Amino acid sequence: MISWIGRRPLRSEIPRLKARGTPKATKKVDISDLTPEALPYLAQAAYFELGVFESLASAVSTAPNLAAREGLSAAAGRALSKHHGLINEIRRRGGEPAVVMAPFAPALDHYRQKTTGADWYELLLSCYLAGGLLDDFFIRLADGLPGDVGPRVAQLLGEDAGTDVLVHELAAAIAADPTLASRLAMWGRRLVGDTLLVARSAMPLQTASGESRIEPVFTELIAAHTRRMDGLGLTA
Amino acid sequence: MISWIGRRPLRSEIPRLKARGTPKATKKVDISDLTPEALPYLAQAAYFELGVFESLASAVSTAPNLAAREGLSAAAGRALSKHHGLINEIRRRGGEPAVVMAPFAPALDHYRQKTTGADWYELLLSCYLAGGLLDDFFIRLADGLPGDVGPRVAQLLGEDAGTDVLVHELAAAIAADPTLASRLAMWGRRLVGDTLLVARSAMPLQTASGESRIEPVFTELIAAHTRRMDGLGLTA
User: Looking at this predicted complex, what is its ipTM?
Assistant: First the structure.
């Protein structure tokens, strides 16, 4: 595992891909030609963030105490602000948000429904892990966007997701209950599979050459996912 | 009805009390001594806005189309940003948000549960009417807060609530279905009663003198409520 100690900003809850490696670690794989067109890219990312918002809002409603509810409402607000930032980019390019997002709704709704989980903790873990993984993924894909939209979107998606509260609630519950820990470890493993499929489907051409070049990126995404699991005391 | 045509900013969906009257209309009743202490005031207003956020987020999840969902998510974001603005004021005064809000949770939860409504349209109407009325009410009470917190809070609560989308969805549905119109008119009448009770309970002393001085304020709140109902084509 690459050491990123000392590079991690104090209050960032997720080691972002872009801030991660040591200089020697990698040549960054160029996958810019695997990025979809700007509008479909923005639409998928926007619809995904709307889903994260809805999941977090539902976690707010079912939170067991007011402090958690309060913290989760802030995290929901962060996801919503990413969503609206992407919506602004869509409008800036002349797209009608509801129209451009519509084609991606069925698959993402299905994904979200599958990953809602059986209780509040599974829901939190989904928000944390899937939100982290797909933010990382969309940041990575943003490299291939034309003009200045790529850096702007990467900046937006890389903002603090406010998920400290999720980590805090999950870590406390996991430490207190070994049964929960093993159930959540299973849930986390299942999530990563479903989430990588969503990531894969966001990319246009699935040629053999595309497949082989995307592979190292998926390896990076999984490594970051594993660190999130480790941070919670879960075996990935 | 007082004419406020020509005074209404183009995209404001609610004629705010502070921007309403014509010069001749009223001497503003001074109720500043009926305002609770700053922390309980901020806590109640913050918890109320959290409830509005949760109701709107739940309306997002059940919206019949993506355009409505998108618009409602923006309205939810506005309520959330009012909530977090109030939370910041609480922290600024050394309060712990979850602690200071806790005493107000049971009554406000009960109110929100009673006013959720039987379907999506009743929920939208609740968000629009109760949100409008209680924003107006808390703005009015803010007069009595010490220092500069009053104007700052009034400014925050007076910001555009993004409820154009609620008005649009409701007005279209009401125009299309007279049965819905009469059901929603009944629902609106019931809401105003429950909401005024919540407003009343937010004030500390309920002496005979307090009662008589608060009466004109309630009359103002009801007048603004009636205009909202009229605007939707509902008989108040």
Answer: 0.80
Out of B58, B61, B66, name the one closest to residue A102 (CB).
B66
Rg of the Cα atoms in chain A? 17
Q: d(Cα B10, Cα B17) in Å, to the nearest integer?
A: 16
Residue A27 lies in a domain: no
A-B interface: how many C-beta pairs under 8 angstroms?
Answer: 73
Closest Cα of chain A to B133: distance in Å? 23
A168/B contact by beta carbon, under 8 A: no
Please list every residue in chain A whose beta carbon sits closer than 8 Å to the beta carbon of residue B102. Answer: 66
How far is A45 from A153, CA to CA, in rounded Å?
10
Query: Do residues A232 and A174 touch, judged by C-beta distance below 8 A?
Result: yes
User: pLDDT tens for residues A166-198?
Assistant: 999 999 999 999 899 999 999 999 999 999 999
Residue B149 lies in a domain: yes
For residue B178, give both structure tokens: 């007279």
List the 53-82 stretch of B: residues with Cβ below 8 A of A.
53-54, 57-58, 60-61, 65-67, 69-70, 73-74, 76-77, 80-81
Closest residue in A to B80 (Cα) is A77
Tokens standing for residue A234: 């879960």
- Could you tell me if residue A44 is inside a domain? yes
User: How many CA atoms within 13 Å lie on the side-chain side of B213?
Assistant: 16
Structure tokens at A189: 């493993």
Tell me the CATH number at B74: 1.20.1260.10
Average pLDDT over residues B6-18: 41
Least confidently predicted of B40-44, B45-49, B80-84, B143-147: B143-147
The answer as to whether B126 is a domain residue is yes
Min Cα–Cα distance to chain A from B32, Å: 29
Domain count for chain B: 1
Question: Is pLDDT of A20 > 50?
Answer: no
- In angstroms, what separates the C-alpha of A66 from chain B's closest C-alpha? 5
Q: Is the pLDDT of residue B99 over 60?
A: yes
| Structural domain containing residue B87 | 35-231
